[in-house]
Amino acid sequence: MADRDGVIWLDGEMVPWREAKTHVLTHTLHYGLGCFEGVRAYNTANGPAIFRLQDHTDRLFRSAHILNMKMPFSKEELNAAQCAAVRENNLDEAYLRPMAFMGSEGMGLRADNLKVHVMVAAWSWPSYMSPEAKEVGIKVRTSSYTRHHVNITMCKAKANGNYINSMLALNEAIASGCEEALLLDNEGYVAEGSGENIFIMRNGILHTPELTSCLEGITRQTILDFAAELNIPVKERRITRDEVYVADEAFFTGTAAEVLPIRELDGRAIGAGKRGPVTEKLQAMYFDAVKGKLPQHSDWLTHIKD
Ligand code: PMP
C-alpha cells in the first residue's frame, strides 16, 4: 500500500502517494480519537460514480461532531476531494478512505493545541472477501468480545479507536476458521459484525437490530429502502443469537462487504445453508443500484466528472 504510484488528498492538496506521511507523534495514532469513512465508487454506463457520497460525508461530519473535532473543510470540499481522489488515480472502481485525525502538534491526553487533519485515499479493492462468498455465503462465529456499549464509547461515531473491538473479534473469528464475527451487545443481543450490520429473514419478515450499539450503516438503510419498495415487512428489534440459528436467511451489509449471505453461525447452518432467495433479490438490487441500473435511485450516485 505504501509504495505505489498515485495521489492522496491531504489537508486540501493532492500529494504523491509515497509522500502522504504523518509524524510518529500523531495524536490519533496514540489514542485513537479520529473518525473515518469507507466509501465505494463503482463503474456505471456513465463512468465511475460514488455511491451515496453525501450520506457518507454527512456521517463523517456527524462522527467529528460527536468526537468534538472541528472539521477544517466543508462538506462540499470533502465531496470534491473524494471525486478528485477517484479521478486523479484513474480508477473505474474504488474504495475510498476519508479520515479526520488529530496531528502531532501536541502530546498527552491533555494536549489542547491539536489541529484536525483530513485525508482522502482511493484505491482499487474489488472484493472484500473471496469473490464466491457473495454467492455461497460465509461462516460466522459469535464473538467472545462484547460490542461497544453506548456509555463506553460513542457508537454513532465511526471512530478509529472503536475498531480495536472489531479487530479483536475478527481476528478471533478468522483464527477459529470462520470468515467473520457476530458481536453481541452487553445484554447478549445481536449487534453487528466487525464492519457490517446484520439482517435475518424469518417467516417472511426481515429483522435487523435497532441502532442502539451498532453503526448507522448506509448499506443497512439502502436495504431498508429496498424492503419498503418490495413490500417486505421489516422489524427493527432486539434479536437473540438463537434466532439467527433458526432464521430462514441471514446476511451482512456494509460498504466493503456489500450484501453478504451468512450460511453458518457457530456451526449451525442458516436455513438451507446457502444464499436464500430474499438475500439474492436484495443483493441483486444493491448491485444494480451501485452500478446505476436503478433509475429510481440515480440520485444515490455522484458521477466523477473531469
Ligand atoms: N458496522 C460497522 C462497525 C462498520 O464498520 C460498518 C462499515 N462502515 C458498518 C456497520 C456498515 O456501514 P456502511 O453500510 O455504512 O458501510
From TrEMBL:
Cofactor(s), by name? pyridoxal 5'-phosphate
- List the GO molecular function terms: branched-chain-amino-acid transaminase activity
Q: What is this protein called?
A: Branched-chain-amino-acid aminotransferase
- Extract the PANTHER family matched here: AMINO-ACID AMINOTRANSFERASE, AMINODEOXYCHORISMATE LYASE
User: Gene3D superfamilies annotated for this entry?
Assistant: 3.30.470.10, D-amino Acid Aminotransferase, subunit A, domain 2 (3.20.10.10)
Q: Which InterPro entries match?
A: Aminotrans_IV, Aminotrans_IV_CS, Aminotransferase-like, B_amino_transI, BCAT-like_C, BCAT-like_N, BCAT_family, Class-IV_PLP-Dep_Aminotrnsfr
Q: Does the keyword Amino-acid biosynthesis apply?
A: yes
EC identifiers of the protein = 2.6.1.42
Its biological function? Acts on leucine, isoleucine and valine.
Enzyme kind, highest EC tier: transferase
Among its keywords, does the record have Magnesium?
A: no
**Pathway linked to the protein:** Amino-acid biosynthesis; L-leucine biosynthesis; L-leucine from 3-methyl-2-oxobutanoate: step 4/4; Amino-acid biosynthesis; L-valine biosynthesis; L-valine from pyruvate: step 4/4; Amino-acid biosynthesis; L-isoleucine biosynthesis; L-isoleucine from 2-oxobutanoate: step 4/4
Swiss-Prot/TrEMBL catalytic activity = L-valine + 2-oxoglutarate = 3-methyl-2-oxobutanoate + L-glutamate; L-isoleucine + 2-oxoglutarate = (S)-3-methyl-2-oxopentanoate + L-glutamate; L-leucine + 2-oxoglutarate = 4-methyl-2-oxopentanoate + L-glutamate
Write the record's keywords in alphabetical order, separated by commas. Amino-acid biosynthesis, Aminotransferase, Branched-chain amino acid biosynthesis, Pyridoxal phosphate, Transferase
Family of this protein: Belongs to the class-IV pyridoxal-phosphate-dependent aminotransferase family.
